[in-house]
C-alpha cells in the first residue's frame, strides 16, 4: 500500500503514518515530477482547506494517475468538512479515476484567522481521534466501498465559496484563501526572526527565501496558505494579519524534522 500525503502541521502526517504502508510526500513527488502510481491499494491523506481540497493538492491530483485495486482518501479537518468528497470526486472524474473510499478525521483546527490554537488543542480530546482512526483503518483493511455523504447545503456553500475565489470577506479576520501575490499583504515577519531558514524548508512550494542582501525573509507568489511556515517557526516570528492569537500548533506525534523532510 502506498500513501501519498501532504501536511503543514502534522495532523495528516500522523494519520498517514498510522494507516501504515509506504509513505510518499506530495511536495517531494511534485518537485520530482512523479505523477504515476501503481500498487494494490493507494491512499491520499491531506488537510481540508476552505471546505474542500487545498488548491495545491487538487493541482497534484489532476496530474496524477493511479493503477490500483483500491483508491482511498482521508482528509483531516477541524470543524466543518464542507463538500470535500464532492470536490475530490470531481477532481478524480476530470483526471480519469474514481475513489472507492473517502472519509475524514476531525483534529485540531490550525486555521489561525479564526481559532486560538491553545483553545483548539484543549478541545482535541473531545474529537476522539484515535477512535475514528481505528474505524478508518479497519475500513481500509477490508477495502470498504464508501464515500462520505454531503448535504445539498454543503455542496451549494462550497460552490459559492469557490466562486468567490480569493476575496477575503473581512480584511481584519481573513476568512477565505488569499493566494499568490496577495498573500504578501497578509504576512508579517517581526524582529524575532533569527534567519534560521526553517520556514524555507517547511514551505511545500519553495515560496520563501532568505534574501542574500538583507538576510530577511522574502515571499514569492506561490503561497496557497497552508500556514506551515507560521506554525513551525521556532521563534514565532511569522504572523498573519487577523490571527486570533500568537499561539501555534504542531501535532504532538510529529516532529519538526519530519515536516522538514516531507516538505523540503
Ligand atoms: C487555509 C486553511 C483552511 C482551512 N479550512 C478548513 C475548513 O474549511 N474546515 C475545517 O474544518 N478545517 C479547515 N482547516 C483546518 C485544517 O484542515 C486542519 O487543521 C488539518 O487537520 C491540518 O492538517 P495538517 O496538520 O496536516 O496540516 C483549514 C486550515 C487552513 C490552513
How would you describe this structure to a colleague?
- With 264 residues, this protein is an alpha/beta fold.
- The chain has two domains: 2-162, Rossmann fold (3-Layer(aba) Sandwich), CATH 3.40.50.360; 180-263, Alpha-Beta Plaits, CATH 3.30.70.20.
- Helix content is 33%, strand content 19%.
- The chain contains ten helices and twelve strands.
- It has helices spanning 11-19, 26-32, 55-63, 84-95, 117-123, 129-141, 152-164, 198-202, 228-232, 256-263, and strands at 2-5, 22-25, 36-38, 41-47, 65-67, 70-77, 101-106, 146-147, 187-189, 208-210, 217-219, 238-240.
- A six-stranded parallel sheet has the order 2-1-4-6-7-8, with helices on both faces.
- The longest helix is centred in the middle third of the chain and has 13 residues, at 129-141.
- Which structural class fits the helix and strand makeup? alpha/beta
The first-level CATH class name of the largest domain: Alpha Beta
Termini Cα gap: 24 Å
User: If you compute it from the alpha carbons, what radius of gyration comes out, rounded to the nearest whole angstrom?
Assistant: 18 Å
Shape: globular
Largest sheet: 6 strands, parallel
Helix % is 25-40%
Strand content: 15-25%
